[in-house]
Each structure stands twice: as C-alpha cells, then as structure tokens.
C-alpha cells in the first residue's frame, strides 16, 4: 500500500461514492495495474475500471525564487456492485 497516499474527500468524490467509485491520491510513479493489484489485494474487492489524471504541483515562493511542489496522480476506482471500501483516513492540511 505504499503507492496509495490518502483518500480524497471533495464534493465530487462524495457524489461518486453513490456510484461505487472511490477517489484517492497515489504516487505519481505508480501505474494503473500496480494500484489495481494493491486495492484488490489489500481491501479484498474486485475493481472494474480505473480512471486517473495527473495534477500539477502548487507554486511556492521562497523569497525571490518561485518553486513548485511535486505533482501527484489522482485515481478514481470503480468497484463491482456489492463491494465497498471502508473510508480511508483523510489527510489534514
């Protein structure tokens, strides 16, 4: 489970829970097959589909120099009907 960072709780992700779709941020270097294998192995569920998109890092100013945080990938995981994932711990910022 090193590849999955934390679950995402936004208005859209909460709405997707009704369709048996779960949203989480994952390591940017992880592939879809790795994430699918981790989810199926760790939670004991069957994954139908996975959608992913890469989100850009945010700009951070350090004096006169503008730096960026690391980019990350967000996965939307669709499970077969009848399966569910218990809520993951939300990351506090």
From TrEMBL:
Places the protein is found: Plastid, Chloroplast
GO cellular component: chloroplast; ribonucleoprotein complex; ribosome
InterPro entries membership: Nucleotide-bd_a/b_plait_sf (IPR012677), Ribosomal_uL23-like (IPR013025), Ribosomal_uL23/eL15/eS24_sf (IPR012678), Ribosomal_uL23_CS (IPR001014)
Main location: plastid
GO BP annotation list: translation
Pfam families linked: Ribosomal_L23
Keywords for the protein's UniProt record, in alphabetical order: Chloroplast, Plastid, Ribonucleoprotein, Ribosomal protein, RNA-binding, rRNA-binding
GO terms assigned for molecular function: rRNA binding; structural constituent of ribosome
PANTHER family hit by this protein: 60S RIBOSOMAL PROTEIN L23A (PTHR11620)
Protein family per UniProt: Belongs to the universal ribosomal protein uL23 family.
Quaternary structure and partners: Part of the 50S ribosomal subunit.
HAMAP family in alphabetical order: Ribosomal_uL23_B
Task of the protein: Binds to 23S rRNA.
Official protein name in the record: Large ribosomal subunit protein uL23c
Gene source species: Cattleya crispata
Taxonomic lineage: Eukaryota, Viridiplantae, Streptophyta, Embryophyta, Tracheophyta
Gene label: rpl23
């Amino acid at each position: 489970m090193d590849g999955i960072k934390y679950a995402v709780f936004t208005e859209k992700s909460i709405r997707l829970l009704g369709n048996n779709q779960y949203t989480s941020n994952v390591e940017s270097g992880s592939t879809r097959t790795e994430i699918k294998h981790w989810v199926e192995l760790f939670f004991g569920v069957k994954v139908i589909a996975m959608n992913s998109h890469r989100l850009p890092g945010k700009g951070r100013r350090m004096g006169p120099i503008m730096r960026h945080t690391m980019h990350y990938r967000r996965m939307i995981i669709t499970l077969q009907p009848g399966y569910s994932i218990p809520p993951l711990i939300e990351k506090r910022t």
